[in-house]
Structure formats: structure tokens, C-alpha cells
């Protein structure tokens, strides 16, 4: 009888469990609350609830990287020279004449020439270049050249000249241009004058280095631009050029304007005159 009662109790308990399981979601697992119990303490300790989940900010889309390549910069042009070289203009000395003269004449350039005001005498002239085939390069015996650079009240420089004697050569006052730098200079001008009683127009260039004693390295060149009637051919033809230098290299200071002209030296000749060799056969 006892065994029958124990069997009935097991059946009742099993049936109760079965009925409880039917009332629960089959996909839900119900776990009992866990209680941590210290082995040495009989007081039950409840664990804290889990912290709430941390909310993350939404993802921000990153725009695509754009690389901008600049255009090539424009080419840089060199600045203009504020003071370009000042040279003797071609209407005074044509390029073809300058090429023929070559290194026989120095042409200085620049915008800061020295003050060349004063009176000078260039003697013992020596011919260093000529367009005339019968001229003897290196010949001497030319008239001394008396020149003066006179600065006017307006700052302009006037040129006066005399060759040997007043009757041999004289020039009208003419305003000249001067270029150069430091003490080096080149003066150039076109003047009208008279030689052997014949009216002439010539282009003139004078170069050198100004010093307290005079013009060192004095050089003188002319180009015959025009001349009056010359039936005897006393003067050189039009377009002739000659280049001279001072014999001792120095055109000395000399106040000749206040003095009378010297007596002519007959064995000498003017710079514009035909050489005695002009009557000979031209050089080959």
C-alpha cells in the first residue's frame, strides 16, 4: 500500500510539471535568479543589474578626397633694365663703319659720364684706321687739334675746335652728347665747319678717360657726311672715315681760346684733307 501511494505522488508531481510547461513559450528559457552565497556567510547577496547598453553615435559619411593640381605658373620674364646701355647712335656712326673700325676705336657706354668741361690740345696725331686704301696707317704729321668742351648755363655742353690755325679749320658751336661711366666717356656729335675754305659736315666721335691732367687715351674719329664744291679734290670724299689717337696718349689741358692761333706748319695736313699719297696708285 505504501508503494502505491509513493507511485501516485510521483505521477501527480509529473503531471503538474507537464501542465506548467504547456503554459510557457517554448522558445523562452526561464532561468532562476542567481544568488551569490558566501561560503562563510549565510546571508544571500544579490548581484547588480547589467548596465544599460551604450548608444553609439551614427556613422558620418566621409566625403571623397579631391586633389586640386594648380596650373603651371606663367613664365617669369626678366625685368627691364632700368638703365639700358647708351650707345653712339647709328646716324652718327653707322654700324658698317663701326665694324670696319673694329678695335681701333673705343666706344664707351653708360649714363654717368665724367664732366669733361675744359680746353685741350691733342698733338702728334697718329692715324690708326682709315677707309682710304692709300692712307698710311701709323703716319704722323697731322695738324694739332685744339678742342674745347664748354658747359652752358642750361647744362648743355658746347664743342669748339681749331686745327692748326684759324684759316685751316674752324667749327661752329655745336651741342654734343656724352655717354660713359666713371671717368671714361665718349662724346659724339655732327658739326658743320670749314676746312681749306670748303664747307663741310662731319660726324665726330671723341673717346678717352678724363684725368686732372687732361684726356688720357685720347681717340678721335670722323666721318665725312657732306662737303661743298671741291673741284681740286683737296678734301677726302664723302663717306670717308679716319681714326686718330694722340701721339703720347694724353690730350693735355691748354687754354687756347684766349690765345692767338699758331703759325701754320706747312709740312702738316688737316685731318679732313687728302693725303699726299692720294696721288699715288691705290694700295692693293
Written overview of the protein:
It is a single chain. With 284 residues, the protein is mostly beta strands. The chain has a domain at 95-278. The chain contains 2 helices and 13 strands, in the order αββαβββββββββββ. The strands form 2 sheets. Strands 3, 4, 5, 6, 7, 8, 9, 10, 11, 12 and 13 form an 11-stranded antiparallel sheet that branches. A two-stranded antiparallel ribbon has the order 1-2. A hairpin with a 2-residue loop joins strand 8 (174-181) and strand 9.
List keywords for this structure.
disordered C terminus, 2 helices, 284 residues
Shape category: rod-shaped
Q: Which segments are poorly predicted (pLDDT under 50) over 5 or more consecutive residues?
A: 263-270, 276-284
Strand content: 25-35%
Mean pLDDT, to the nearest integer, reads: 74
N- to C-terminal distance? 171 Å
Provide a compact summary of the structure:
The chain has 284 residues and is mostly beta strands.
Q: What's the arrangement of secondary structure elements?
A:
Elements: H1 2-22, E1 35-37, E2 44-46, H2 95-101, E3 118-122, E4 126-130, E5 145-151, E6 157-163, E7 165-171, E8 174-181, E9 184-195, E10 198-211, E11 214-227, E12 241-245, E13 250-253
Amino acid at each position: 500500500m505504501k508503494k502505491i501511494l509513493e507511485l501516485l505522488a510521483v505521477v501527480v508531481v509529473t503531471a503538474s510539471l507537464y501542465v506548467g510547461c504547456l503554459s510557457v513559450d517554448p522558445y523562452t528559457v526561464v532561468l532562476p535568479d542567481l544568488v551569490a552565497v558566501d561560503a562563510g556567510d549565510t546571508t544571500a547577496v544579490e548581484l547588480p543589474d547589467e548596465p544599460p547598453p551604450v548608444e553609439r553615435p551614427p556613422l558620418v559619411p566621409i566625403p571623397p578626397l579631391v586633389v586640386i593640381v594648380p596650373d603651371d605658373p606663367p613664365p617669369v620674364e626678366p625685368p627691364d633694365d632700368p638703365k639700358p646701355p647708351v650707345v653712339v647712335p647709328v646716324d652718327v656712326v653707322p654700324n658698317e663703319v663701326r665694324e670696319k673700325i673694329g678695335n681701333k676705336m673705343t666706344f664707351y657706354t653708360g649714363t654717368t659720364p665724367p664732366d669733361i668741361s675744359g680746353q685741350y690740345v691733342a698733338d702728334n696725331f697718329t692715324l690708326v684706321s682709315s677707309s682710304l686704301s692709300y692712307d698710311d696707317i701709323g703716319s704722323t704729321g697731322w695738324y694739332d687739334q685744339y678742342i674745347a668742351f664748354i658747359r652752358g648755363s642750361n647744362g648743355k655742353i658746347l664743342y669748339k675746335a681749331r686745327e692748326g690755325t684759324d684759316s685751316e679749320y674752324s667749327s661752329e658751336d655745336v651741342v654734343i652728347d656724352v655717354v660713359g661711366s666713371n671717368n671714361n666717356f665718349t662724346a659724339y656729335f655732327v658739326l658743320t665747319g670749314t676746312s681749306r675754305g670748303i664747307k663741310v659736315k662731319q660726324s665726330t666721335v671723341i673717346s678717352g678717360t678724363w684725368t686732372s691732367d687732361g684726356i688720357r687715351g685720347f681717340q678721335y674719329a670722323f666721318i665725312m657726311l657732306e662737303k661743298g664744291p671741291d673741284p681740286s679734290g683737296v678734301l677726302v670724299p664723302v663717306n670717308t672715315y679716319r681714326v686718330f689717337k694722340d701721339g703720347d696718349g694724353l690730350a693735355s689741358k691748354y687754354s687756347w681760346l684766349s690765345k692767338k692761333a699758331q703759325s701754320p706748319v706747312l709740312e702738316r695736313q688737316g685731318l679732313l684733307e687728302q693725303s699726299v699719297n692720294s696721288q699715288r696708285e691705290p694700295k692693293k
